[in-house]
Amino acid sequence: MKQLSDYFNYYNSAAAPFMHNMLADYESRQPFKGMTVAHNVPLTQTTLLKIACLRAAGASVTVVNPSFMQEDPATIDVLKSEGITYQPLAEISGSFDFLLDCGAELIEQCHARQGIVELTRTGAMRYENYPDAQVPIVSVDNTRLKSLETCLGTGEGVYRAITELSQTSLKDKKLLIFGFGKVGTGIAYYFSKITPHISVADMLPQRLRQIDQRGYQPISAESLPQVESAIKEADIIVTATGIKNLISLSYPHEWFNHKILANAGAEDEFGFNFKDTEVLAAKKPVNFVLKEPTLMPFLDPIFYAHNIAIEDALDNTKIGFRPLNRSMDEAIVKRWSVHHDWSLTELDRIF
């Protein structure tokens, strides 16, 4: 049976410098000693490093897995062997000092005594409008560093999953993306390495200008003729809007026949008019069919930020929703870019 230390050996300090530094720091300081943490983050072998850091900090961690991802029995076995509690999401309840959440799935079942940290855009929107906040709610999504994972990491993972699952060469195929937020931007960036034929549909005028400026074909999502033409020309269609049932509610099903379809959002964006068999990965977020949905170099700074945001909430106890401290955000991006040899100028161009 593997132990948590084995994963620090597998993901060495070159791949995960933030996690290695955090482990050493938390072992020496134990800043969360005596605290309880409910941890709802996609549970893969990479996530074990993040959980190990929380335990090293002195926290008692209860781990659950988000609803949009299949449980990984091997990873759960590692947690159990280390004496770390795992519960199915539907079964967790009670009070914890901190909720480390993904998609705001813990708030209906758990109570936070000292703070909440949210990882995703979907969850941030829910928490931002949460009427009964009694603690600080820190969003890692409302940061520049989140683009390292959501734009570059998810974009690469979606690209990798579609190329594997489609079982055909995608070189020079025509790609249509719905949504040009962080995820859509990353998908377009990685697919641009194999095809010049990329169209992106969005409702916002400023995003349509960005799409055009980056050399992609802008499609106004409010223009039915434009969308119909783009769908019928496309070989591959990917949703990345974060809007549940978007395609079923907006466009006729028959337009999508004989296309490679993939969903990159946490919600089922194709929706009720589409069978599971019509969309790669049965309409779930397509990259989560991979053993590593997002590669460790992109997760490493996000895991670090999600954990360290506890300290942000302890330092600034103002009740309500806010982004992670800006100086923390900027410092993490700078450290990541230096370590992985990406210029800040290049990151600015992609983001």
Question: Can you lay out the helices and strands and say which pair or pack?
Answer:
Layout: H1 4-10, H2 17-29, E1 36-40, H3 47-56, E2 60-64, H4 73-81, E3 85-86, E4 94-101, E5 110-118, H5 121-128, E6 136-139, H6 146-165, E7 175-178, H7 182-191, E8 198-202, H8 205-213, E9 217-220, H9 224-233, E10 236-239, H10 246-250, E11 260-263, H11 296-315, E12 320-323, H12 326-339, H13 344-350
Parallel strand pairs: 1-2, 1-4, 2-3, 4-5, 5-6, 6-12, 7-8, 7-10, 8-9, 10-11
Organism: Kangiella sediminilitoris
GO molecular function: adenosylhomocysteinase activity
Cofactor: NAD(+)
State the domain count. 2
Number of helices: 13
CATH domain class of the largest domain: Alpha Beta
CATH level 3 topology of the largest domain: Rossmann fold
Number of strands: 12
CATH evolutionary superfamily of the largest domain = Adenosylhomocysteinase-like
Largest sheet: 7 strands, parallel
Radius of gyration: 20 Å
The general outline is globular
Mean pLDDT: 95
Spatial strand sequence of the major β-sheet: 3-2-1-4-5-6-12
- CATH architectural label of the largest domain: 3-Layer(aba) Sandwich
Topology pattern, helix = H, strand = E: HHEHEHEEEHEHEHEHEHEHEHEHH
Low-pLDDT stretches are none
Distance between the termini: 41 Å
Strand proportion, as a percent range, falls in 15-25%
- Protein structure class: alpha/beta
What's the helical proportion of residues? 40-55%
Pfam families: AdoHcyase_NAD (PF00670)
GO biological process, one term: S-adenosylmethionine cycle
Family: Belongs to the adenosylhomocysteinase family.
Protein name: Adenosylhomocysteinase
